[in-house]
Design goal:
The complex is a heterodimer of chains A (357) and B (347).
Chain A lengths: L1 H15 L2 H20 L7 E7 L4 H12 L3 E6 L3 H9 L5 E5 L3 H6 L6 E6 L3 H15 L1 H9 E6 L6 H32 L2 H5 L5 H31 L7 H25 L3 H17 L12 H6 L4 H13 L5 H25 L5
Parallel strand pairs in A: 1-2, 1-3
Antiparallel strand pairs in A: 3-4
Helix pairs in contact in A: 1-10, 2-8, 2-10, 8-10, 8-11, 8-12, 8-14, 10-11, 11-12, 11-14, 11-15, 14-15
Chain B lengths: L1 H16 L1 H21 L7 E6 L5 H12 L3 E7 L2 H9 L5 E5 L5 E6 L3 H16 L6 E6 L6 H32 L1 H6 L5 H29 L9 H25 L3 H19 L11 H7 L3 H15 L7 H20 L7
Parallel strand pairs in B: 1-2, 1-3
Antiparallel strand pairs in B: 3-4
Helix pairs in contact in B: 1-8, 2-6, 2-8, 6-8, 6-9, 6-10, 6-12, 8-9, 9-12, 9-13, 12-13
The chains are: A alpha/beta (357), B alpha/beta (347).
């Protein structure tokens, strides 16, 4: 019975704080509206400079096919490689194509003249994908090979980056809302001094911690519902699998992050400390979770960390359900892992709270 | 002057006494550099491949062996029909399936969830399958021959951490004194109120430089990121950026009434746009036009671009004059606004 009153008190406190309710509603909406447009790692609009030393019909055809391509913006023809390199240095171009002299003649005679593709590889992915696309345009053999081999892109026929990123956004929003807010909760009470008042009551540790966690789980539920709704309304992207699985995964992740937030809060003395420690964990977990870059590409040592990273299990599972339409069997492994890790965190949160210092 | 120095010393003591925050502040760049340098890459490795064929023959065997020999692909299993392959991909037991049909046509069924990786997988698979002899193309990767993602990320980490330390910590420190009530005590001391605020900013300035030097050292010696440009100009541009971040911190501290508010404003209004719109993680050219304009008012975008040019591409100072002008302009504007809004009294 006591716990109902405590939960009521938590909700009252959230509501009375003018800033928080607005944040909880506006922030997810803002993120869902803007982020999918931003989170586009598609390689497009690459500016190409051409240095044409051949000036034959063949080389001009090559230039025309570059102009016609969707991936490239034809920047201009330069007289020398050095001039084109200058363009890259002043950020006017991203990639240079140098066609050697006698290109057309050598091609007709069956020799293999080499063109030079120099790509600005400060952004490694952009450089490599850009030069791969350009190679495909240059190599006529590759073009015919591409037509001999048929490729079927499952789950994402239009090769739309948003489909990949929207489940990732769920993870980020859950992490931000259910991670940072509980972290500030107990430390805020410590700084204000009201934690002493709760400590002298007969409220048990379990009820106290549960009462602090439950409002954030409800917020997580609300958050997921809004995100799913917005994803359907604005982008027309819906969940291919069972919605209940999405909710299950979200609740498990919310349990983990709110427990983590509370643990950090219990061990910190000031809000600043709590925020910084939380920020540290969040950034590390996010980067190593396979959200932005695939976990399979990690070196073996780093791959070991994914075994204890709940974000990794969540991202894998939600992508399987949302994009690939998997059922419970496909994600059973991840659900089990999330269950273990989250309950461990929850128990730690309760055990670490001490009423008397 | 002596009063000012004693205030600066007081502030430094406050910061140094908070061991946990100091740990995170110096630990964060180190850990981030390690993660970006060694753990995060978009290389093609360990692509789990399924072979789909109803019967084996020597040609298919040869192709499969070529794939298995390459370092990119790992053959997991062979199944008879494409449907089985699709099921395995859906359950995330594989990434790519190659279907060999009777009439020698080859089909790739690839997990299209991550479009970039899917494209790369099919490119590599086509290359290995076709065994192309001699290429018509000579590819050269400028400035970053091994395509290390660290090169791209080090300027981004610098931009984010410096903004975090200067803007967020400065504003929280000032607002915390207001909340606790100790600001009144400071205001009745003989020093001018503006000097109090500046004395608060100075230790964070020093801290920011310390972090900058840590990041540069780690980048140079641990990650082997070359520092091609001149160090002097790198420091000059960084100083302008740090001053900009400090003025932002001052502005936030004038607006916010509680620590929570200061924190949430710096986190949501500052850090989120920085991470999203500054070109740190996602290329600006791929964004819709409205967002590209919005990113024009995000200061870290110019700093990160300038740092990329100076550090990785090693260009001279002439190329970054545009970025420097914009950053200086923003700094002066923000300083003017925050000084104007500065209230000498507590109400």
């Amino acid at each position: 019975m006591m716990i109902m009153h405590l939960i009521h008190k938590e909700f009252l406190q959230i509501r009375r704080n003018g800033f928080l309710p607005r944040l909880i509603i506006m922030f997810p909406i803002m993120i869902m509206c803007i982020m999918p447009w931003v989170m586009n790692q598609e390689v497009k609009n690459i500016r190409v400079d051409v240095v044409d030393n051949d000036r034959s019909t063949r080389s001009r055809q090559l230039v025309h096919s570059i102009e016609a391509s969707n991936y490239f913006i034809f920047c201009g023809q330069k007289p020398t490689y050095q001039a084109a390199l200058n363009d890259i240095e002043t950020s006017k171009a991203d990639i240079i194509l140098v066609i050697p002299q006698h290109y057309s003649r050598n091609l007709t005679q069956g020799r293999q003249p080499q063109v030079l593709i120099a790509a600005n590889a400060v952004n490694g992915t952009k450089g490599s994908i850009g030069s791969a696309y350009l190679s495909q345009i240059v190599t006529p053999a590759a073009a015919t090979i591409q037509s001999k081999v048929d490729t079927l892109f499952l789950y994402n026929k239009h090769v739309n980056y948003k489909v990949y990123m929207i489940p990732a956004l769920f993870a980020i929003l859950l992490m931000l809302m259910t991670g940072f807010l509980p972290a500030l909760n107990i430390v805020g009470e410590k700084e204000k001094g009201t934690i002493e008042q709760i400590n002298v009551t007969p409220v048990s540790k379990w009820s106290f911690i549960l009462a602090k966690l439950i409002p954030y789980w409800l917020i997580a539920l609300f958050l997921i519902t809004i995100c799913l709704l917005l994803s359907w309304l604005i982008y027309g992207i819906t969940c291919q699998g069972n919605l209940l699985l999405v909710y299950l995964l979200a609740m498990l992740l919310a349990l983990f992050f709110s427990s983590l937030g509370l643990i950090i809060s219990i061990y910190s003395d000031t809000m600043q400390q709590a925020i910084f420690v939380m920020w540290f964990f969040v950034v590390c977990m996010l980067l190593l979770s396979g959200l932005f870059t695939p976990t399979r590409s990690m070196p073996d040592l780093a791959y070991l960390t994914t075994y204890v990273n709940p974000m990794h299990y969540f991202i894998d599972a939600i992508r399987t359900v949302f994009i690939r339409g998997g059922n419970f069997q496909s994600i059973a492994h991840q659900v089990l892992a999330l269950l273990c890790i989250s309950s461990l965190m929850g128990i730690w949160a309760v055990k670490s709270y001490k009423k008397n210092n | 002057m002596k009063q000012f120095i004693s205030f600066v010393i007081k502030e430094s003591r406050h910061i140094l006494r908070d061991k946990r925050t100091m740990l995170i502040l110096f630990g964060m760049p180190v850990v981030l550099m390690l993660i970006f340098g060694f753990a995060i890459t978009t290389d093609v490795r360990n692509v789990r491949t399924i072979v789909v064929t109803s019967q084996m023959n020597p040609q298919i065997q040869a192709a499969v062996e070529r794939l298995a020999a390459s370092e990119y692909f790992t053959i997991t299993t062979t199944v008879p029909t494409p449907k089985d392959a699709e099921l395995l991909i859906r359950n995330q037991k594989a990434d790519l399936a190659i279907v060999f049909s009777k009439d020698h046509a080859i089909q790739f069924i690839v997990d299209g969830a991550d479009p970039n990786m899917a494209q790369q997988w099919t490119n590599y698979a086509t290359g290995v399958m076709m065994n192309m002899q001699g290429t018509l193309v000579n590819s050269k990767m400028l400035y970053n021959p091994q395509m290390r993602s660290a090169y791209n990320f080090v300027p981004a980490i610098m931009g984010m951490l410096l903004m975090l330390v200067c803007a967020m910590m400065t504003s929280i420190s000032i607002v915390r004194e207001k909340e606790r009530g100790t600001m009144e005590v400071l205001l009745v001391s003989p020093i001018r109120p503006l000097m109090i605020i500046i004395a608060k900013a100075v230790p964070y300035l020093v801290l920011a430089f310390a972090i900058l030097i840590t990041i540069l050292l780690m980048a140079r010696f641990v990650l082997d990121v070359p520092l091609q440009g001149s160090l002097v100009w790198i420091f000059v541009v960084s100083t302008i950026y740090i001053l900009l971040a400090l003025s932002l911190g001052l502005l936030i501290s004038n607006i916010a009434t509680s620590q929570l508010m200061a924190l949430l404003i710096s986190a949501m209004v500052l850090l989120m746009p920085i991470v999203m719109l500054s070109g740190m993680l996602f290329p600006i050219e791929s964004m819709p036009t409205i967002l590209q304009w919005l990113s024009a008012i995000v200061p870290p975008r110019y700093y990160i671009e300038a740092m990329r040019k100076l550090m990785i591409m090693g260009v001279g100072i002439q190329e970054v004059t545009r970025e420097i002008t914009v950053l200086t302009g923003m700094t002066l504007f923000l300083l003017a606004v925050s000084l104007k809004k500065f209230k000498t009294r507590l109400e």
